[in-house]
Amino acid sequence: MTKLTPELPEQLQKIKLKLLDGSIGAISIDTCIFSRAGYRLDQGNLRRLEQFKGDAFPLIFSEITIKEVIRHIGAHSEEEKTKFLNGLRGIAKFWNIESAKQTAIATDLLQGMEPKELAKKRVKDFVTRCGANIIEAHKALDVSELLKLYFQTLPPFEKSGDKKAEFPDAIALLSLESWAKKSSTSVLFVTNDKGCKRYCEQSQRLFAIDDLGAALTLIQERDAHRA
At what angle do helices 163-182 and 143-151 cross, to 10 degrees? Predict the structure, then answer.
C-alpha cells in the first residue's frame, strides 16, 4: 500500500480535501496505468479495484479506454502466442514430438481461444469483478468540443506528435467530463499522461493523480473519515 506523508504535495492535498468533502465522487483509470501494470488485471493495484464492486463510490471507465485495453492485451497475446508456437516447434524438432501431441499441448495451454477472444473475456471478467460502469462514447461525447480541442491544439492534443494517438485520450476525457457533469460530481482520474494531466488542470470536474496506489490510499482515508 502506498503511504502518504502528513504534509502532502499541494495537488494531493487538494484532491484529499475534495474526497473528504464529497466533491470527488468517482474514480477512473487511464489506459497508460494498465500498461504500467503490465495489463495484469488480477494482480497488484488493478486487483484492488475489485473493492469498488457494490460500493457507493463508483469506478467508471470510458468505453474507449476499455477498447484500448482489449486491443493492447490482444496484441500482446498474439505476439506471445507466436513465440510459444515457434518455440514448441523448435522443441518438437529436437525432442521428436509428434505433430498431434504438439497440437494437444498448444490447445491445452491456449484454451482453444484466439488472442482477441481471450482479451475480450479477460477484460469483461475484470469489469464484472470490479463492478465498473462503462461510459458509452455515443451517449456522452460532445463532438463539437472534441473538434475544438483538436483544431485549437488544446490539451490533450499537442502541437507536435501523433494526433491520431491523442484522439482516444480526448474521447475518454470528454466522456468522463460529460458523465461528471450529469452526475453533479467530480472524478479522480489516474493517469501519468502529460496531455491528460494538462487537460485535468483546466477542468472543473476531473482531477489527475499519477499513481494508482496513492489514489486508492486517499479513497481509503475518505472511507474511514466518512465512517
Answer: 140
53 close to 83: Cβ distance less than 8 angstroms: no
Cα–Cα distances in angstroms (integers) from residue 83 to residues 103, 104, 164, in the given order: 15, 17, 30
119 CB-near residues (< 8 Å, 6+ apart): 70, 71, 73, 74, 77
Residue 203 φ/ψ, nearest 5 degrees: -90, 150
pTM for the structure as a whole = 0.89
Half-sphere exposure of 40 (CA within 13 A, CB side): 8
DSSP H or E segment with residue 206: strand 206-209
Could you identify the residue written with the cell 482515508? 221
The overall average pLDDT reported for the chain is 92
Instruction: HSE, CB side, 13 Å, CA atoms: give it for residue 17.
Output: 8
The stretches of 21-62 forming alpha helices (DSSP H) are 31-36, 44-48
Q: Write out pLDDT tens, residues 171-183.
A: 999 999 999 999 9
Cis before 6? omega within 30? no
31 near 68, Cβ under 8 Å? yes
Least confident span in 45-54, 131-140, 153-162, 176-185 = 153-162
Neighbours of 181 (CB within 10 A): 13
Listed as own residue / partner, the contacts of 217-221 with beta carbons closer than 8 Å and 24 or more positions apart are 217/1, 217/2, 217/3, 217/4, 218/4, 218/12, 218/15, 218/16, 218/19, 218/188, 219/19, 219/27, 219/57, 219/188, 221/16, 221/19, 221/20
